[in-house]
User: Fold these one by one.
Assistant:
Number 1:
Amino acid sequence: MVPPISDNNIITTFREDFQRIKDMGFVRSNRAHNTGIGKTFEDLIGVHENNFQLVDYMNFLELKSQRDYTMSMLTLFTKSPDFPRNANTHLRDTYGVPDEENPRVKKLHTTASGARFNSVYDRFGLKLECNNAENKLFLRFKHLNDEAVLPDRIYYDYATLRFIVEQKCQNIAYINAESRVVNGHEEFKYNNAVLLTGLSFEKFIDGVNQGLILYDIRIGSYKSGRNFGKIHDHGSGFRIKKADIQNVFLITEI
């Protein structure tokens, strides 16, 4: 079980570690592109990539970092659907379109809500459906030309989602940083951190139904480098807009 939020020793230790990093001012990114901000902070605070560790910091705080100016949503977690097997491949092959830069490979980029159907390349609509009777969260597709909902069964088991929400989304340290480029290298200045708490599984499902917690599919192909032309799967993830964080989480200054 995740320790209770009243464990002030961990919060105090994190606050001290964060202040140390904040006092460093701008630091050079340890990794190129979007993931550099999180990787650099984790390196500075002493968190090592570990596939066996459920939660980032002292098995209590999940770390999330973003650039101050970004309009990107905050990713809560990524996980491909439980069914069918190789669900992301099925989604790309069935509902994707040829990548303009690499037509041999299909891409599928879309953001879906539980509140209404979206439009996927003007061909399909996608909506999340939380089915409490079956204890499953379904990805429902329909044809936009005739509104017919497809019988395709693509879903997450509630048990899978509950485990992730209760392990990785209970105590989130949400860090924001300034970003600049110096001599072609990105640098970050980590300015503030807040604690996000209060997300139960039931509140997660409610957030999906209200369209506060969204679902992102980002599958395409590498555009350069040694993997050019190969499938690039950024994962299927549950995300939230910055403006809606306050509607889902309790926010506390660290």
Number 2:
Amino acid sequence: MSPAAPIRPPARASAPAYRRLSVEERRTQLLAAALTLFAHRAPEEVSIDDVAEVAGVSRPLVYRYFPGGKQQLYEAALRSAADDLEQCFAEPPTGPLTERLGRALDRYLAFVDEHDTGFSALLQGGSVASTSRTSAIVDGVRRAAADQILAHLQVAEPAPRLRMMVRMWITAVEAASLIWLDEGKQPPVGELRDWLLDQFMALMTATAASDEQTATALRAALALERPDGCAGALARRVLPVVGDAAHLL
């Protein structure tokens, strides 16, 4: 009988090869960690050590990519968040206007919900990390939102009255978002969205009464609305109220 073959230990699974992240991948990783922290804490409450811990890297590595420290990291994270916010109002230019704005508001309010503390610190401007650069980033988001809305209204060269009306509404959306956070995210987000849509249509109607450019844009928008949509529901709620004021005519 031939000698038994020696028993060999089972082969050990080889450890996965370590993959070094590229510069862009590492930067994206650090920004994601920073955004997670800035979303739920005021900037002054976040340290470089906190970012390093969430990212699973060393403090010196964070400084290697962001030698300006927390301020540079905050501004980069803010720019990344601003890019996401600017995309909220990007919608294909088809269908009823209120449905397009409704989808845009859904994305915007979802961002507010996800980045509650950071959103409040950002818009209220009370953070020690606020600078002229951060203010410019925030203002850029507002201007981008206004441009998107005017594009939905198919107005290439808005006159001051219409442009001011759109910017007023964007300011109202921001203010309502902050109050919503302060009120414990009440009313439900769907109700807040519909109320903000009602405000937009009401502002358009009031402005159209004294501005022909807005009136033209409003007539074109209403032509696309559905009777069972937001504009139709608002008209049915408002007409009885307006009827009570017939003596003013």
Number 3:
Amino acid sequence: MSGLISLTLRIWRQRSPDSPGAYANYRLEQVSADLSLLEALDLLTEQLISAGERPVGFEHDCREGICGSCGFLVNGQAHGPQEATTVCQLYLRRFNNGDTLVLAPWQAKAFPPIQDLVVDRSALDRLIEAGGFCSVNTGNAPDANAILVGRDQAASAFETATCIGCGACVASCRNASASLFVAAKLAHLAQLPQGQPERAARAEAMQQQMGREGFGSCSNQLECEAVCPKQISADWISWMHGERRRAAGSGG
């Protein structure tokens, strides 16, 4: 049994995109250490509503570490101090009794604030719209099954397909680069047969869209790899640059 824990939550509060923001302190006394951080915020929400105060705005959906919606900074680290973990899977037992946790939203030009810990991550959606998809007709299931994909090839493609689009890589990069996100989306399609017809155009379109959205360039600091909850390797960024050179050489 993990017992009980008391914590101070220092949370960034901002009512709207145009209003000023500031940190506010909240105390949680003797709560179960088996609560996730999001469950602790649920508890705080109940307390604030009961007191007639505005609850803390934060995103969540699946709470199983696969939807990518719940991310924010915990003591300056994307998703908190535990590796390969999203905020919804970060439990209070990871901290010490009496700790202060500073919770802040992703901070990047491409992720404008909405309210409190919520930011607008639609720039990632627009990157997908620019080319992170496969539009060729692959037929029905029996037709797809007729195209053999090797075990190692499938495993490598799946490694990059595990990206959940949380934006932690952007929030942790000193340049707010989306390079790891884009590299993962490019790589999981380019390694499979159905991704080949649009491979060159996809690489060019998505990397151009990064610039239009205001994401910075990669400077190989590797913060993105360190905070990725799915542990996607930054080596794929180098692979992505090769894809763009390949696209240029093929004429798009």
